[in-house]
Design goal:
The complex is a heterodimer of chains A (about 325) and B (about 400).
Chain A lengths: L10 H8 L4 H22 L12 H5 L8 H19 L4 E3 L9 E6 L8 H10 L15 E6 L22 E6 L8 H5 L5 E3 L6 E3 L9 H5 L5 E3 L14 E3 L11 E3 L4 H4 L6 H5 L5 E5 L6 H8 L1 E3 L11 E5 L2
Chain B lengths: L1 H14 L4 H27 L14 H14 L2 H9 L3 H28 L22 H29 L5 H27 L11 H28 L6 H31 L6 H7 L9 H19 L6 H19 L23 H29 L16
Helix pairs in contact in B: 1-13, 2-13, 3-5, 3-7, 3-8, 4-5, 4-7, 5-6, 5-13, 6-7, 7-8, 8-9, 8-12, 9-11, 11-12
Classes of the chains: A alpha+beta (about 325), B mainly alpha (about 400).
Chain lengths: ~325, ~400
């Protein structure tokens, strides 16, 4: 090679660029290309471990929930039921329950009554088909129960992983936190693809698990730590699957998408209470229609001292804390 | 058209001309890139559990590197402004390298976003008409626009100027001057919009304050020129392209001013957080001193501050008029800003969590390898572009060469 010691590309070597390719160069180039492709193939080899059907053209081309035609959605719901049956041996009913006209859901939680037993957090897990590595793995539960010191409401010194033999503990009080179903939700505002939105009528913030790209911007935006991300394929024992499912709430999730509390819309839109309310042993939880003047929740808002968590961030929650005395 | 294809063919051929050292360097970078691809493929199969991120700290090293690199890309403007607004002739000889660096770095930024996605298979959802823009609501949608726009602007400007040089034509001003001026404003916008990603989140008090964008720009104009000073010296040492000292010392001046501003803003920030330590200072407390027995970031941030101060000291004293000391200043500033903006800005935004938990974050090996791969790919891309650009810039690769009949290949 005619190389100029001062330079990498000397005029001599450059002249070859203008000449036709010699056989020698061609062979060298082919060998390099083969080596390069082999290297790339080896680098990508982990992809062989992908499960069959994990990436399908159909799934890639599926439109966002709100753009789906009714017949497309029906087909998808059936495909989801088939898939769950194939994978877990359980056939669920995946519904698409719409919000009821004139109903706006609100939730109130009585901090005087809450004893911090975490039954709500477990009830949530049981209802909503979240991933769990063990029966007591609450990481993906939509409810975080905080233990706070009496005499203030400083979240910064609260404990999540409290573990005393009995609750409530002397000098402590307890505060479950879940999605506040904000009227001004920062999470839906930041989503770059509108994969999460607030339903116009009942106000529930939902996620389309087939449209979410997993950027987790909504998690950064949420002031209540209310969103969970599937860092892996959800681990869910078939025996613990709740077959009553809804497309926008507790149907089985995918790896790499965000999920959150929907006030159990698979229940609440069918006229039932959310699971966390049903399991609460102290009756600390009140749920209902904010637009119905005779509802229990309206009674609480009208007659009790109400506290709004992080009111200063301007999210206007539909979730209220209140006190008995 | 045929001419352009010939051009591309020659560019392709010249890409493979080089000394053994050049081949060694490119092979090394390719190998590191493939290591990164391998790590990413593992992550793609297993999910982001291969990273150190959690529900509490939901962004980590990827977004940290992304944020830092947006600044480096924006800093190309510090070559463009002296060259085109102040008409400094000597800056014209290097401005092309700034634009090429911007291209390589923006590609790295886009890759860092891609590897951070939980569902990279759905990235088209971000791009109309296949997907949906949540515009103007989502700052991330803005970022997609400004980053890709900046990439296109620089591809056009650098590509057009190089092609004209190759054809030995004078570039037609209407074809590039307007874009150069747009790119100046655009460069500022990419970093501002990226800062707004964080500043816009009212729930994260560590990010939600108005100094962040200014500090982003100030620190970007330290790290970017620092990298350029080092790169220019490598280029003039190993290639047949003359770069004088003047551009380097112009960049030194820019770095110095930017570093002074950056440190002043840092001081203002520290004063605000610690003079009246409110509940909102918890993140800063975690970063600088640790919180509830967790000290993960403390060594990082103090290293960054020490590097920043050393860099500032070197820059404001006559010491850095000597090229050796200037190089040291560039290295320490680059590292200092990288830590400060990466680990120092992104992670404390999540610690403590909005509900007060302290969950620490440390990148895993696999995550680190993915980062390494993206950096290696960026370096590979930049090296390749420089390899092609230099023979064009110095006139040895051109449309109508006068071939010497005596040299036969």
């Amino acid at each position: 090679m005619n190389s100029d010691p001062q330079n990498e590309v000397s005029p001599q070597t450059l002249e070859r660029v203008y000449q036709p390719v010699t056989r020698r160069t061609f062979l060298k180039g082919t060998a390099a290309a083969v080596a390069g492709l082999a290297g790339l193939g080896a680098a990508l080899s982990p992809l062989l471990a992908l499960e069959r059907g994990e990436l399908t053209l159909e799934a890639l081309l599926q439109k966002r929930y709100r753009e789906l035609k009714p017949e497309e959605l029906r087909r998808i719901l059936k495909a989801l039921e088939d898939q769950c049956e194939r994978e877990y041996g359980v056939r669920p009913a995946v519904h698409d329950r719409k919000a009821r006209a004139g109903v706006e859901f609100g939730y109130a939680l009585n901090l005087t009554r809450c004893i911090g037993c975490r039954k709500c957090a477990y009830g949530c897990l049981k209802e909503n088909n979240q991933s769990r590595d063990a029966a007591d793995d609450l990481e993906m539960s939509y409810i975080r129960v905080l233990e706070l010191d009496k005499g203030g409401m400083n979240l910064e010194t609260s404990t999540l992983y409290y573990d005393p033999p009995t609750v409530p503990q002397e000098g402590k009080f307890y505060m479950p936190v879940q999605c506040q179903q904000c009227r001004q939700p920062p999470c839906t505002k930041v989503c770059p693809v509108r994969a999460t939105w607030q339903e116009e009528t009942d106000g529930i913030v939902v996620v389309d698990y087939n449209w979410c790209i997993g950027c987790r911007y909504c998690m950064a935006a949420c002031p209540y730590d209310a969103r969970r991300f599937n860092y892996k394929k959800p681990a869910l024992p078939p025996a613990e699957i709740n077959p009553n499912q809804d497309y926008l709430s507790n149907r089985l999730r995918y790896k790499g998408v965000v999920e959150k509390c929907t006030f159990c819309l698979q229940r609440s839109r069918a006229g039932k209470y959310p699971a966390c309310l049903e399991v609460c042993p102290t009756g600390a939880r009140i749920f209902g229609d904010l637009r119905d003047p005779k509802s229990e929740i309206r009674y609480v808002l009208d007659h009790k001292r109400v506290y709004i968590l992080k009111e200063e961030v301007g999210t206007l929650p539909r979730f209220y804390y209140f006190f008995d005395k | 058209m045929k001419d352009y294809l010939t051009f591309l063919w020659r560019v392709w051929r010249v890409s493979f001309q080089g000394s053994a050292k050049f081949y060694l360097w490119m092979t090394l970078l390719t190998a590191l890139t493939l290591v990164g691809v391998h790590a990413w493929a593992r992550q793609f199969v297993a999910g982001l559990e291969t990273t150190g991120m959690t529900n509490q700290v939901s962004w980590g090293a990827y977004i940290a590197n992304f944020t830092f690199l947006v600044g480096v890309a924006a800093a190309a403007v510090m070559l463009v402004i002296p060259a085109y607004i102040y008409k400094k002739e000597f800056m014209h000889e290097v401005v092309i390298f700034g634009e090429l660096m911007a291209i390589a770095v923006i590609v790295m930024c886009l890759l860092f976003v891609m590897v951070d996605l939980g569902r990279p298979d759905r990235f088209l959802h971000m791009i109309p008409p296949f997907g949906i823009f949540n515009w103007p609501g989502s700052i991330l949608s803005w970022d997609v626009i400004v980053l890709n726009g900046y990439l296109l602007l620089n591809l056009h400007i650098a590509g057009y100027l190089l092609y004209c040089r190759y054809r030995q034509q004078k570039p037609a001003k209407p074809f590039y001057i307007p874009f150069v001026f747009i790119s100046i404003a655009w460069a500022v916008s990419i970093h501002t919009v990226t800062a707004f990603l964080y500043v816009g989140l009212a729930g994260r008090s560590y990010w939600h304050h108005p100094l962040v964008p200014s500090r982003f720009l100030a620190s970007a104009f330290v790290a970017g020129p620092g990298l350029m000073i080092l790169t220019f010296q490598i280029i003039r040492r190993v290639t047949r392209y003359y770069i004088g000292d003047q551009p380097i010392f112009t960049l030194r001046m820019i770095m110095t001013v930017a570093m002074i501003i950056n440190m002043f803003l840092l001081g203002s920030e520290l004063f605000t957080e610690f003079y009246s330590p409110t509940m909102h200072a918890a993140a800063a407390h975690y970063l600088y001193f640790g919180l509830h027995g967790h000290h993960g970031l403390v060594p990082w941030i103090w290293t960054a501050i020490a590097l920043d101060f050393l860099g500032l000291l070197l820059l404001i004293t006559p010491l850095s008029r000597k090229i050796g000391w200037l190089n040291l200043a560039c290295v320490v500033c680059f590292l200092g800003v990288w830590i400060e903006k990466g680990m120092g800005l992104i992670i404390p935004g999540f610690v403590p969590s909005p509900l007060g938990q302290v969950v620490e974050y440390l990148p895993t090996l696999n995550e680190t390898l993915v980062c390494l791969g993206v950096w290696a790919f960026g370096a590979l891309l930049f090296s390749w572009m420089v390899r092609v650009a230099i023979p064009i810039m110095n006139g040895s690769l051109r449309a109508h060469p006068q071939l010497n009949p005596l040299t036969k290949s």
